[in-house]
Amino acid sequence: MTTPPVTALECRDIRVLAGDKAILDGISFSLRAGESLMVIGPNGSGKTTLLHALLGLVPVASGEILWDHCPLQSLSRLDIARAAAYMPQLPECPPGFTVFEYVLTARYARRQSWRGYTSGDRDIVDAALALTGMSGFSRRPVVSLSGGELQKILLAAAVAQETPFLLLDEPASFLDYHHQVEIMALVEHLRRERNLSVIMVTHDLNIPFLAGARLLALKQGRTLYYGTVTELPRQRPMLESLYDTPFQVITTDDAKWFIHPVFSTRGEEKT
Amino acid sequence: MTRAAIIALVALAVVILSPWWGMEPLNWSVLGDIRAHTPAGVIFWQIRIPRTLAAFLAGSALATAGMAFQAYFRNPLATPYTLGVSSGAAVGAALAIRLGIPALVPFLPATALFGFLGAMACTLLLYGLTRLRGGFSTPALLLTGVALSFLLSSVLLALQYTSSLHDAYRLLRWMMGGVGMVGYEAVLTMLPFVVAGVVTIGLMSDTLDLLSVGETTAMTRGVDVDRLNRVLFFVVSLMIGGVVSVCGPIGFVGIMVPHTCRLLFGYRHRVLFPVVALSGGMLLTLCDGVARTIIAPAELPVGVVTALIGGPFFLFLVLTGHASDRPRGN
């Protein structure tokens, strides 16, 4: 509890292998507290593996991951859990646990082991549930939730973990538009309010508030592009090569932009 | 927790009353005969009290070990008994009996040491298979347990078949599971195993919560899963080795008790664990009471009684879908 929060993350030329095949190769970036990163790329390009590597869930074959200048392998699981919270894309869903009990386990790294979870921990869980609009669900079994509700619970748990870094793997993938907007607004609120660093894997190129964030585009485990989200409208060729799909950038009168893939019927494709 | 306090009081009452329950009626005067000069005194102080203590300790250990296995395998039917770990301990202990191995460590009978080693070998095998497969569905897990149990049963039979008549009978009685043949010595043999195991598992309560959520979740929230697995397997093997070497393999306590307690007290191990440990002791003490009176003047091995109650319970869980398919994800 007394250790100061982690303020920097650096990833130096990392390589992750599965057998002989490199899932990630030569990935580098660095973030200071409050800076965010958006990770894009086609399915199977290594986005989730990157998050797993940052958390020490998969071994890094070469290169270095430094949390506050400390190499990842010198950190304990507790150290990592105090630096970064992870919201997985496919949650592990415990039968029997209530929503409250589930979110409470996010306080594991912050609890005092001999006392267990205190009333302070419980208050933080209540606050996180209130923040995500899930207070009314706290006594419901986790298995009874819909996909959208489950994602909000996962976000509540990540918030309750109280880490300076938030690693989100497609946080809105199962949500309808209403909930998507809600979750994204919440993430932005947290980022500003608590000066969090958000690392978000997403397929949505039009998340407005991530405009100031860095952008990492992965293709087949390699960095195709590393820059900022602001430059995205000028990166149409990069996006087209990234997704092997034609894109269209629409700029509105008030200088907002939208990027969309171009839909074409089979047989009518033009270059 | 008032309900937990009630459980504790009932458990205490069962332990206090159990020695008075039996074929031979006793009256209060035996309390004064602590040196056991009369036959009633011998029955009370030398037979029934150690027997009650042994049943309570063994039940406690079996229930707690079952709870830990269910959290680890994320499966309500996983217990050291259903997965063949108890059989491993039995083979270890039977080998020690058959080969007449002397105690290698002071104050630790060879049966307990070899029981522990047998349990440990089976646990490591299960762990390795789980890793190799990247997860186990309920049927696969149970079938592995069944296969392991069959395999080890035939080893046990072979050991028994090649034994002298006296050893063979001793092995047979012990394999049925019972707390009847024990005295204080047996209680003292089990005590360190059971206390060490139950206390360690109790201290891991919050960690077991996370483990029962899922391995990835546990890791990202601060659990050193590899270390936890090693500790968990070691203490479960220790408990099962200690208990089985004295009482033989006793089944179903590790399923019935944690399952019922979860229905009443929820899934948080900090709340669940003391209740499971107490109720396990209570259940086996009660079953032993039934075992020694139901066909008086003869008595049943307590393992037969737990199986008669636990078998249908197990089937109930399977048929009502409580044993939902939940493989260990990676």
Q: Strands, helices and their partners?
A:
The complex is a heterodimer of chains A (271) and B (330).
Chain A: E1 8-18, E2 21-32, E3 37-40, H1 47-54, E4 62-67, E5 70-71, H2 77-83, E6 84-87, H3 99-104, H4 119-131, H5 147-160, E7 165-169, H6 177-193, E8 197-201, E9 214-219, E10 222-228, H7 236-243, E11 247-251, E12 257-261
Parallel strand pairs in A: 3-8, 3-9, 6-7, 7-8
Antiparallel strand pairs in A: 1-2, 1-4, 4-5, 9-10, 11-12
Helix pairs in contact in A: 4-5
Chain B: H1 2-17, H2 39-73, H3 85-98, H4 110-133, H5 138-161, H6 165-175, H7 184-203, H8 205-213, H9 215-220, H10 225-247, H11 253-265, H12 269-293, H13 302-319
Helix pairs in contact in B: 1-12, 2-7, 2-8, 2-10, 2-11, 2-12, 3-4, 3-5, 3-10, 4-10, 7-10, 7-12, 11-12, 12-13
Structure report:
The complex is a heterodimer of chains A (271) and B (330). In chain A, helix 4 (119-131) packs across helix 5. With 271 residues, chain A is α/β, with parallel strands linked by helices. Helices cover 27% and strands 27% of the residues of chain A. Chain A has helices at 47-54, 77-83, 99-104, 119-131, 147-160, 177-193, 236-243, and strands spanning 8-18, 21-32, 37-40, 62-67, 70-71, 84-87, 165-169, 197-201, 214-219, 222-228, 247-251, 257-261. In chain A, 40% of the residues are buried. Chain B starts with a helix and ends in an 11-residue tail after the last helix. Chain B has helices at 2-17, 39-73, 85-98, 110-133, 138-161, 165-175, 184-203, 205-213, 215-220, 225-247, 253-265, 269-293, 302-319. Helix content of chain B is 72%, strand content 0%. Chain B is built from 13 helices and no strands. In chain B, 52% of the residues are buried. In chain B, helix 2 crosses helix 8 and helix 3 runs parallel beside helix 5 (138-161). With 330 residues, chain B is mainly alpha-helical. Residues 325-330 of chain B have low confidence and may be disordered. The interface between A and B is medium-sized, with 32 and 27 residues.
